[in-house]
Design a protein that fits this description.
Keywords: Pyridoxal phosphate
Shape: globular
CATH superfamily of the largest domain: Aspartate Aminotransferase, domain 1
Strand order of the largest sheet: 4-5-8-7-6
Mean pLDDT: 94
GO molecular function, one term: pyridoxal phosphate binding
Low-confidence stretches: none
Oligomer: single chain
Protein name: Methionine gamma-lyase
Number of domains: 2
InterPro entries: Cys/Met-Metab_PyrdxlP-dep_enz, PyrdxlP-dep_Trfase, PyrdxlP-dep_Trfase_major, PyrdxlP-dep_Trfase_small
Structural class: alpha/beta
Pfam families: Cys_Met_Meta_PP
Bound molecules: pyridoxal-5'-phosphate
Largest sheet: 5 strands, mixed
CATH architecture of the largest domain: Alpha-Beta Complex
Strand content: 5-15%
Distance between the termini: 37 Å
Number of strands: 8
Order of helices and strands: HEEEHHHHEHEHEEHEH
CATH class of the largest domain: Alpha Beta
Helix content: 25-40%
Radius of gyration: 19 Å
């Protein structure tokens, strides 16, 4: 699932095309742990930023490369292996902390996905431009449904296209500072909702033309939906922020 546009790659087709040509397939599954199991769908290597959903606490910097032992062992080669040369051996205490969080990753992902689906559906009903793979009009909705593990849903990230950066920033200001719906931060996968305007933050290394080609509107707000508070309390905070935004516009 791509960042931030939430395009969904057809892993089985890409894997079969690549394997025909003798090419390895690497999938970054940071956005959809538990939801997708890329190795079962044909990918050779799966990478994760563990700092996100897998950690869940926005307090750990870690990553994972999952693949066949031949590849992992070659990466750990004492003289040539990038893992040895770049030194990413995880601190043992951090590894222990993560091992205590992985058992509830499944429950956490289900709630992230459930709330993202409810919010996306309600935001759409309000007439907002929502991008979420759980909505039927998403171009890869059926594809994701065919690949996803049962009962997880469609991911914990949704995007709202507010048109302009100014409107995106104004909405996030109200959501964070007036109604406490979430926090402005470029990370994701936390129990609080995190929001960022991708074009001027995580994708700002691209120029305007590249962003347009990638489908990243200047007003795109990426939201990593959290699960703290009750769903209805959070929704009412969202609606209040939107109403305030409209009041201040008029
Ligand atoms: C999809 C995806 N992969 C990888 C990363 C990189 O994460 P890290 O900075 O923890 O290496 C990010 C960061 O936002 C991401 O969104």
């Amino acid at each position: 699932m791509s960042n931030p546009t939430l395009h969904v790659a057809d892993i089985p087709t890409l894997s079969s095309m690549a394997h025909h040509k003798g090419v390895k397939v690497v999938v970054d599954n940071t956005f959809a742990p538990m939801v997708l199991s890329p190795a079962r769908l044909g990918a050779d290597v799966v990478v994760h930023s563990v700092s996100k959903f897998i950690s869940g606490g926005a307090d750990i910097i870690a990553g994972a490369v999952c693949g066949p032992s031949s590849l992992i062992n070659s990466m750990m080669d004492l003289h040539q292996g990038p893992l040895m040369i770049l030194g990413p051996t995880m601190n043992a205490k951090v590894a222990f902390e993560l091992s205590e969080r992985i058992p509830h990753l499944s429950l956490r992902m289900k709630e992230h996905c459930h709330r993202a689906m409810v919010f996306a559906t309600r935001m759409k009903k309000l007439g907002l431009k929502v991008i979420y793979p759980g909505l039927e009009e998403h171009p890869q909705h059926a594809l994701l449904k065919s690949m996803a593990n049962k009962d997880y849903g469609f991911g914990g990230i949704l995007c709202l296209d507010m048109g302009t950066e100014e409107r995106a920033n104004r909405l996030m200001h109200h959501l964070q500072n007036c109604t406490q719906f979430g926090l402005m931060a470029v990370s994701l996968g936390y129990y609080e909702t995190l929001m960022s305007c991708s074009g001027s933050s995580t994708s700002s290394e691209m120029n305007a033309e590249e962003r347009e080609l990638a489908g990243i509107s200047p007003g795109l707000v990426r939201m990593s939906i959290g699960y703290s508070g009750t769903l209805e309390q959070r929704w009412s905070q969202f609606e209040k922020a939107l109403a305030r935004m409209h009041q201040t516009t008029n």
